[in-house]
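Here is an idea for our session: we take a single protein and study its fold together. Start from the sequence, derive the backbone structure tokens from it, and show both lines together. Once you have written the record down, we can walk along the chain together:
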Amino acid sequence: MRATDGAGMRVLDVGRGRGDVSRMIAQLVGGQGQVVGVDRDGRPLAAARGRVDPSPPGEPDGAGA
């Protein structure tokens, strides 16, 4: 995927672990896109949730929560 291809896309990241790839993809799809990550092991998901900024891009921290 090229960076210019991702804007506005909806992406499913299966087996996402701690979410490093999901975070990278979220930057590519931007505020109009969506990334959903799933993993069968809850431990990496719990760690990933702690790393997520709930604010939509372009809004101050917490404004979108």
